[in-house]
Structures are given as structure tokens and as C-alpha cells.
Amino acid sequence: GSWKDDKPDGYGFNLKNHGTIIYYGEFQKGILKEGYGKEQLPNGYENEGKIKDEKFHGLGSLSIKLNGKKET
């Protein structure tokens, strides 16, 4: 995505923690204002859904792998 004043600005994506946390959407002054996120947490949980002002907001899903199967 684009950068302004050394911060993400405009549509883009951000990978954190070696790609286990992925955010994409509309950034303003380095903050993800609206978009979508997916987190793969070390405990096996996966959180996925809409993001507003850098927080999960609205509908989403929380999953975990049990015995090799993904449960939502």
C-alpha cells in the first residue's frame, strides 16, 4: 500500500508475527480504520473477521484445531 509521513496510508495489508497475523483494508495515518483481519494465535486459536479502528468489530469467527480438525 501507500505511505504518508512514514506511516501506511490507503488500501494495503500488514503482516505481523511472521505472517501469523494478517490485516488488510483502509489505513489512515498508520491505523487500520476499516478492513479485515485474521490472527493465528500460538494456542491454536484462529480469530477472523471485520476490523474497525484496529479492533475486531461485528461478526467474525473463532476457530481451534482439535485432533487435526478445524472447529468453529
What does this structure look like?
There is one protein chain. With 72 residues, the protein is an all-beta fold. The protein has one domain (3-71). It has strands at 3-4, 7-8, 10-16, 21-28, 31-40, 45-52, 55-66, 69-71. The strands form two sheets. A six-stranded antiparallel β-sheet has the order 3-4-5-6-7-8, with no helix packed on it. Strands 1-2 form a two-stranded antiparallel ribbon. A hairpin with a 2-residue loop joins β7 and β8.
Q: Spatial order of the strands in the main sheet?
A: 3-4-5-6-7-8
- Report how far apart the termini are: 31 Å
Q: What would you call the quaternary organization? A: single chain
Question: How many runs of DSSP E, i.e. beta strands?
Answer: 8
Mean pLDDT: 86
- Low-pLDDT stretches: none
| Gross geometry | elongated
The topology string of helices and strands comes to EEEEEEEE
Largest sheet: 6 strands, antiparallel
Number of helices: 0
What is the rounded Rg?
Answer: 14 Å
Helix-strand makeup class: mainly beta
Which band does the percent of strand residues land in? over 45%
Q: What is the helix fraction of residues, given as a range?
A: under 10%
Number of separate structural domains: 1
Compose a concise summary of this entry:
0% of the residues lie in helices and 72% in strands. The chain has no helices and eight strands. The strands form two sheets. It has a six-stranded antiparallel sheet, with no helix packed on it. The protein has a two-stranded antiparallel ribbon with strand order 1-2.
